[in-house]
Specification:
- The chain is of the alpha+beta class and about 140 residues long.
- The chain has two domains: about 35 residues, no CATH class; about 80 residues, OB fold (Dihydrolipoamide Acetyltransferase, E2P), CATH 2.40.50.100.
- The protein contains two helices and twelve strands, in the order H-E-E-E-E-H-E-E-E-E-E-E-E-E.
- It has a four-stranded antiparallel sheet with strand order 5-12-10-7. A four-stranded antiparallel sheet has the order 9-8-6-11, with no helix packed on it.
- The longest helix is centred in the N-terminal third of the chain and has 13 residues.
- It is globular, with a radius of gyration of 17 Å.
Length: about 140
């Protein structure tokens, strides 16, 4: 199976409602999946605005939860904080970012997946991992 077929399959999973796809061609099996939202993670409502999940015990905690947005790893792979070794990282702690700006690259099966900012804001926390493996759903950064 060539790289263009794999990229097409990844795009298909990203656009569809399925959560897992396994394709076997000759002696190669490719498994593509995406994770479901974790309980406690912010969800996007119909109006496209962030809506925290209920369950905060007091108003200040609730306001804090709504003001910080987690950026989690969508796939398992090797996390790169810069475009190449020795280059400046895409973002640093405290940087202001715009929605859609590249934050990281995760290399999975020789495919480089850009992880972008889901909203504009300031980097409130940032993973120290660079060049190491990250798990699906692992917290990479928080945007305030």
């Amino acid at each position: 199976m060539d790289l263009s077929k794999i990229k097409t399959l990844i795009d298909f999973v990203g656009r569809s409602n399925i959560t897992e796809l396994t394709v076997t061609e000759k002696d190669l099996t490719v498994r593509i999946f995406r994770s479901q939202p974790v309980v406690g993670e912010a969800l996007v409502g119909a109006a496209g605005k962030q809506q925290p999940i209920a369950g905060a015990s007091d108003g200040s905690k609730h306001a804090e939860q709504a003001s910080v947005f987690p950026v989690k790893a969508p796939v398992f792979g090797v996390l790169h904080r810069s475009s190449a070794p020795g280059e400046r990282p895409f973002v640093k702690l405290g940087d202001d970012v715009k929605e859609g700006q590249t934050l990281f690259i995760i290399e999975a099966m020789k495919v480089f997946n850009k992880i972008t900012a889901p909203r504009s804001g300031r980097i409130a926390s940032l993973t120290e991992t660079d060049g190491g493996e990250v798990e699906t759903g692992e917290l990479l950064a928080e945007i305030a």
